[in-house]
# Entry
Amino acid sequence: MDVAIAVVLALPAAIVVALSAIAIKLTSSGPVLFRQQRCGLNGRTFTMYKLRSMVDNAEQTRFELESLNEMDGPVFKSSRDPRITAVGKLLRRFSIDELPQLYNVLRGDMSLVGPRPPLPQEVARYERWQRRRLSMKPGLTCLWQIGGRADLPFERQVELDIEYLRKRNVWLDLWIMLRTVPAVLAARGAY
# Structure
């Protein structure tokens, strides 16, 4: 199901990605795509792809901005992050920056639905019970993406991921995918 839906979404996504790439190139220097190591199934690392929504050297300056962190737990999120470009704000608001992850789905690194893939340095700080979210492939969307996105505390995000693991079935996946569209269009909780 992942591959079939990803193939169907690939053409419209490619058009949106191409237009976004032009906007990124016209407004900031650096590559269009952002590659980052993330943890997938059983903690195995893989390269995740996104459209670049931040300045080119954003990774190097991340730790200087710790005081802006609005999340609890091992993750960093900030609605006031100065590294985000003007185009990047729009891309993030509607999750357009995530569209290249369809390639990760086609490669088998990710699923359409599942816990969002964490950074290795975040996983290193997980409590034992939080590691359960690594017991399945990460996804493009999940329960907490449709239930509040980044507005939810980290512990609640993990709880929802574990709830998904317990209840996982095709109908739940379809329901989450359908609910993702209005959640993204509403743009609540997007950083």
In short: The radius of gyration is 16 Å.
